[in-house]
């Protein structure tokens, strides 16, 4: 029986995904955490913890170095809330183009008896523009960005995309009408609207700052529904004060953005829909089960991809440092135990490596001795033995 500990309110549909082999919140030594927004940085991860799955895109609330040192695989659920974010960005594009925020505020403030005559006189103050024929620059063409780009095309917009890390698989999801820019400056220089959809890391912190903002044409509308820090908010305020940026829409508030007519802050609701919560919880539950039952890894944050058909009777998985001579040390332990290897695979990601070894014959006594021997290798972090039984 696998033990799973949940944090936050996890969609019931996701919890229902677990099979009868999984118990929820019944042990202080769980095999898995299923989380959303809980901050784990002050937590001591139990040695029993083999996997953390976050029902969401970001993992800034997970101590990745501590998890890796503990031999704990960390996964997120990329794409689970992509449609939710796309729909909100498209809605805000319409809102921006038609001055709907200002128009709604005007109507809320003028409810007197002659409101019909007054609004008829004043409505020209809120004349907007149409999105048809306007240019949208999409920075980042992954799960969310590709959906936004395709949806904007459907609205008749010209779409220019920039993503130096675009994978071949992701490229298939992008309509051929999306123009590709060679740099951020090329993407934004003629854009009426600019939206960013990139993960947050050292390379993307302040990706949109003074240089990029100055490359945009005056009157541009800027959107950050990615992560706080992707847009340099101090630089954005400077551009707003200069009238270079007409309006800034973001899901991530900071004091310097407060009480401005030219800034719209939403309370981090980009991915907050019922459907997205179900998608994330379901995807996270399936990820946990796949990893615990097969050891296979796809798109982990701290482990390399390794997907090996589990056809043998037993499987050893070994998380270890990415240093020379590890594979030979591991296989020599199996040779000493007189075990024949049916299948073996190894891959590395940064400083961490992962090895899968399948064997057909194994008895209980020799299996524990082998696990102890593998764990005794100095660079080994975690050893697991899986079986089909």
TrEMBL record:
Enzyme class label: oxidoreductase
Molecular functions per Gene Ontology: NAD binding; phosphoglycerate dehydrogenase activity
Pathway this chain belongs to: Amino-acid biosynthesis; L-serine biosynthesis; L-serine from 3-phospho-D-glycerate: step 1/3
Catalytic reaction(s) noted: (2R)-3-phosphoglycerate + NAD(+) = 3-phosphooxypyruvate + NADH + H(+); (R)-2-hydroxyglutarate + NAD(+) = 2-oxoglutarate + NADH + H(+)
Gene3D superfamilies recorded: 3.30.70.260, NAD(P)-binding Rossmann-like Domain
Swiss-Prot/TrEMBL keywords: NAD, Oxidoreductase
EC number: 1.1.1.399, 1.1.1.95
Record family assignment: Belongs to the D-isomer specific 2-hydroxyacid dehydrogenase family.
PANTHER family given in the database record: FORMATE DEHYDROGENASE 1, HYDROXYPYRUVATE REDUCTASE
Protein's UniProt name: D-3-phosphoglycerate dehydrogenase
Organism (species): Lactiplantibacillus garii
């Amino acid at each position: 029986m696998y033990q799973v500990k949940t944090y936050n309110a996890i969609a019931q549909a996701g919890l229902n995904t677990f099979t009868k082999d999984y118990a929820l919140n019944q042990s202080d030594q769980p095999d898995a955490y299923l989380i959303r927004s809980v901050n784990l940085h002050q937590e001591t991860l139990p040695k029993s913890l083999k996997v953390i799955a976050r029902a969401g895109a970001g993992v800034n609330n997970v101590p990745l170095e501590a998890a890796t040192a503990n031999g704990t695989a960390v996964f997120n659920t990329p794409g689970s809330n992509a449609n939710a974010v796309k729909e909100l960005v498209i809605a805000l594009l319409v809102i921006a183009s038609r001055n709907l925020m200002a128009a709604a505020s005007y109507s809320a403030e003028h409810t007197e008896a002659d409101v019909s005559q007054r609004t008829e006189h004043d409505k020209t103050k809120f004349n907007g523009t149409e999105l048809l024929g306007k240019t949208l620059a999409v920075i980042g063409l992954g799960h969310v960005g590709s959906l936004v780009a395709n949806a904007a095309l459907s609205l008749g917009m010209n779409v220019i995309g920039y993503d130096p890390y675009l994978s071949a698989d992701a490229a298939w999801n992008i309509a051929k009408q999306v123009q590709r820019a060679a740099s951020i400056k090329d993407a934004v220089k003629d854009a009426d609207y600019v939206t960013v959809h990139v993960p947050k890391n050292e390379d993307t912190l302040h990706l949109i700052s003074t240089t990029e903002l100055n490359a945009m044409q005056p009157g541009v509308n800027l959107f950050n529904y990615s992560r706080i820090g992707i847009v340099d908010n101090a630089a954005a305020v400077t551009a707003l004060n200069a009238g270079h940026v007409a309006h800034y829409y973001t899901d991530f508030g900071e004091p310097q953005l407060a009480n401005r007519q030219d800034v719209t802050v939403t309370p981090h609701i980009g991915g907050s829909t019922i459907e997205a919560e179900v998608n994330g919880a379901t995807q996270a539950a399936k990820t946990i089960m796949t990893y615990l039952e097969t050891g296979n890894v796809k798109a982990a944050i701290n482990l390399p991809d390794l997907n090996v058909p589990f056809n043998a009777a037993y499987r050893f998985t070994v998380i270890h440092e990415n240093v020379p001579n590890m594979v030979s040390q591991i296989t020599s332990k199996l040779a000493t135990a007189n075990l024949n290897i049916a299948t073996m695979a190894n891959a590395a990601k940064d400083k961490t490596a992962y090895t899968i070894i399948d064997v057909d014959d194994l008895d209980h006594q020799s299996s524990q001795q082998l696990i102890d021997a593998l764990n005794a290798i100095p660079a080994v972090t975690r050893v697991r033995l899986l079986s089909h039984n």
